[in-house]
Specification:
The protein is built from three helices and eleven strands; from the N terminus they run βββαββββββαββα. By secondary structure, the protein is mainly beta. The protein has one domain: Beta Complex (Metal Binding Protein, Guanine Nucleotide Exchange Factor, Chain A). A five-stranded antiparallel beta sheet has the order 4-9-8-7-6, with no helix packed on it. It has a three-stranded antiparallel beta sheet with strand order 1-2-5, with no helix packed on it. The protein is globular, with a radius of gyration of 15 Å. The chain starts with 6 loop residues before the first strand and ends with a helix. Bound molecules: zinc ion. The site of zinc ion has 9 residues, from loops.
Amino acid sequence: MGEGGERLIGTCHCGGAHWTLSGDPGPVTACNCTLCRRYVALWAYDFENERVALNGTTTAFPRHDRKKPVLETHFCPTCGCLLCWRDLTTTADGRRRMAVNIRLAPPEAVAHLPVHHFDGLASFKTVPRNACVEEMWF
Ligand SMILES: [Zn+2]
């Protein structure tokens, strides 16, 4: 895992929790679903304790709003920063899908990453647009 590759660390504002990501984060995703729209997160995906891992104390929101929740989000109970989401169930081979919020990474490490715009509100498809992380910050 991560041999010879880059290791990215995303830390909440108070430093109480952080995630790590090994290797190329790839394109990150901006989503307009009812939850992501409010969080303003940018997601990089992998599987828990494979290329991504969560460390420190977090509070989870397991989507009580859904009849059949599929994922939970994790945020710092002290400063409120959103760190990641992870699936509530594992795949047949025991892997757990997880996405980390790239906005918590050092700006210079992620500014160039391309952004995919995912229409999680309506069509559930990626909308073609050209943007990188730097253009999404503000
Ligand atoms: Zn914090």
